Amino acid sequence: MTERREGGDEFVEARRGLGAVLGGNDAATSHANMVACYNATMQVIPAIDLLGDYAVRLERGDYDRVLFRQPIEEFMGRIVATSPELIHIVDLEGARSGSLRSEVVRRCVDVADGIALQLSGGIRSVARARAALDAGASRVIMGTAVWSDPWALSNLVRTLGDQLVVALDVRDDQINVRGWLASTGLSVDDALQRCVDAGVARLHVTAIDRDGTMSGPDLALYERVCASGIAVIAAGGVRDDADVEALRVLGCEGAVMGLGYLERLGITLESD
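The structure assignment produced for this chain is given below.
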């Protein structure tokens, strides 16, 4: 892949790269144009969920409901060809087991070709966060470790600074952890207050029941969290330009797209 450049040159490289990956046809060029335009107006962050050696998409975080599956390097190559500023990587195996797969992180870094990665899944200590950063991640998302101990959050903020992104994975107004499989019993408002008090720089907020559904983001949830004054990345149900714009108006700095990004790549679940 060619070196990324600013402005129009970057747009052209994104278009050409995606055209090459998807066959160089007019449809591929159209999809590349669309993706590059979105990246120019708001940080649209493509999501890559990993299960074994595959990139997957799940419905509502259910490991038994896989909507899409493709080898990691193949799918990530498609993402990289659109030249996003940032790619969101979730190791679902790590999230479920609590183990960081450093070798998988390195594989993703190699394919990313200099594009920044934010990583989550299995990062439940400062040591594992450091290992993920050492493996090439630009920042880490932590949820389970943050909410397991009343003193953990302040320590993580002190140690990791703005390389820490705190996960608020929300279902029924409560924070969920361990790959969304367990509830903490902590409310969104209480979690937000703890983050404000600890000086958290950035939140990654997922409406779990919207994830993998293409049903639109939970705008009421994001309005609440943006009111905290902390930078917010929204995830869960983000479909299209209208959703991205609605989130921008609320104050989100970025939106993570999973199934929605597949559509931007011209991938249909029936044929891929």
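Interim note for the steering committee: Residues 7-264 form a domain with the TIM Barrel fold (CATH 3.20.20.70). The first strand starts at residue 43 and ends at 51.
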